[in-house]
Amino acid sequence: xxxxxxxxxxxxxxxxxxxxxxxxxxxxxxxxxxxxxxxxxxxxxxxxxxxxxxxxxxxxxxxxxxxxxxxxxxxxxxxxxxxxxxxxxxxxxxxxxxxxxxxxxxxxxxxxxxxxxxxxxxxxxxxxxxxxxxxxxxxxxxxxxxxxxxxxxxxxxxxxxxxxxxxxxxxxxxxxxxxxxxxxxxxxxxxxxxxxxxxxxxxxxxxxxxxxxxxxxxxxxxxxxxxxxxxxxxxxxxxxxxx
Length: 243
Known about the structure:
Layout lengths: L20 H5 L6 H22 L3 H13 L3 H8 L5 H25 L4 H23 L9 H19 L8 H24 L1 H27 L18
Helix pairs in contact: 2-3, 2-4, 2-5, 3-7, 5-6, 5-7, 6-8, 7-8
């Protein structure tokens, strides 16, 4: 059920002193979704210990596969339980990036994947993450994730546990090695295709974000100067964002 919207007063505004339920709900920290995200983050440390400390390659590969497969769980919990939070919006993608970077670098160091393939993955993640940070600092609005990016990431998160579990000479490992290359090849192509495809929506998001900030700044200036709000038919009416 959607959060209730505060009732307008006689002048058409929102009654003072009635907090918005959605805004209050997003301030929550302890939610089921955030607990799952935190567990996944802790799992990254366990994965590293299994691989390099205990030297249990198979157990590490299985755990890595579980961490990758549960990528969607926290997001689904947040939406279905109406527990979307500000910290969750930041923590979830951050943990995903940490997991991908850690998995790729660890598997490269372990020698289970060719260096060129690992570098293609690392560079792509660095380019996308850096671009997101730059756009955010410039005031761009949020960009929706492209489906090819999701599929590409899924392919890579299947491939790297496959590379790891198939690193060896046992006969049972060969099918995992083949599957890893199938998912990894498709994943890396789609991941880079998504990175290129983000260029157009990124430019649009930057322009719209700047327009929204300029419109908001203009509204504050008018209010601060005590001038009347623009009349209907002008370029921007009260409450509108952008042109």
